[in-house]
Write a structure and sequence with these properties.
Length: about 220
C-alpha cells in the first residue's frame, strides 16, 4: 500500500518491476491500482462553503507542499473556487506547516498577525483546523463569530470539540477497506478495477458562520 502518488521515478520503476501487488491510496498515478478521493474537490467544497457565508478574505494552512500531492490538490481546489468567485488566495494567506495540531496553531498565529487578517481559515487537514480553534481561543477571538474555521478529513474528534468543527469528510475507513480488498484480489490474481474514487462530503457544524458585517476586522 502506498500513500500519495508523488515519489521518485526510480521507486515507481522498482515497484513495477518487482511484480508485487501494489495499491495506491488517496491519489492515482496511472501506474498502479488505486483507492482515491478527489482532493481538489475537497478544497473546493471547503472554500465554497466559506464563500457562501460571505467571507472574502480567506486563509489556508497546508502541509508542506513538496512531495505532498494531496495537500497541493486541496490548495489548488480552494484557490480555484475563490478565483471563480472573483476572489483570490494570495501567497501571504497560505502557510505551510507540519501536519500536527501545533502546526495548525502556528499557522493560525501567522495569519492572525497580519494587518489585514482573514475572517475565515481552511485547514488542509482537521488537525490544522482544531489547532486554529485553540489558537483563536487563546487570543480571545471567538469562533465562529469573529473567525470561521473549516477542516478537511472528518476526524471523529472534530465532532466533539467546542465549537464542533465544520469539515469536508473523507471516508478514511472505507479507503482502508477498499485497499485491503484490492490487495487481496491482486494477490489472488483476480481482476480489479484500476481506480476506485470514493466521495467526499461537506459536513456543516458550529465552527463556521456568516461573516459579520460590523465590528472589528470585518470586510
Amino acid at each position: 500500500m502506498l500513500v500519495g502518488a508523488e515519489r521518485a521515478h526510480e521507486t515507481t520503476t522498482f515497484l513495477k518491476g518487482a511484480g508485487i501487488p501494489v495499491v495506491l491510496t488517496w491519489c492515482s498515478d496511472g501506474f498502479f491500482s488505486s483507492v482515491t478521493i478527489d482532493n481538489d474537490l475537497a478544497g473546493r467544497l471547503a472554500a465554497q462553503h466559506l464563500i457562501d457565508l460571505g467571507h472574502r478574505r480567506i486563509g489556508m494552512i497546508t502541509g508542506h507542499l513538496h512531495f505532498n500531492d494531496r495537500q497541493r490538490a486541496r490548495l489548488a481546489g480552494a484557490t480555484a473556487a475563490l478565483i471563480e468567485a472573483g476572489l483570490c488566495l494570495p501567497q501571504q494567506l497560505v502557510t505551510e506547516q507540519a501536519l500536527t495540531m501545533a502546526g495548525g496553531r502556528a499557522g493560525c498565529a501567522t495569519l492572525l498577525e497580519l494587518d489585514d487578517r482573514p475572517t475565515a481559515l481552511i485547514g488542509g487537514v482537521d488537525l490544522f483546523a482544531i489547532g486554529c480553534i485553540e489558537e483563536a481561543h487563546a487570543r480571545g477571538i471567538d469562533v465562529p463569530s469573529n473567525l470561521s474555521v473549516i477542516g478537511i478529513d472528518g476526524l471523529d474528534m472534530s465532532a466533539h470539540i467546542s465549537p464542533s468543527l465544520t469539515t469536508v469528510n473523507v471516508p478514511t475507513a472505507k479507503i482502508g477497506q477498499e485497499t485491503a480488498t484490492k490487495l487481496i484480489a491482486l494477490i489472488q490474481r483476480d481482476g480489479v478495477e484500476a481506480s476506485t474514487q470514493l466521495p467526499v462530503e461537506l459536513i456543516v457544524r458550529r465552527s463556521t458562520a456568516v461573516r459579520r458585517q460590523t465590528g472589528p476586522n470585518t470586510r
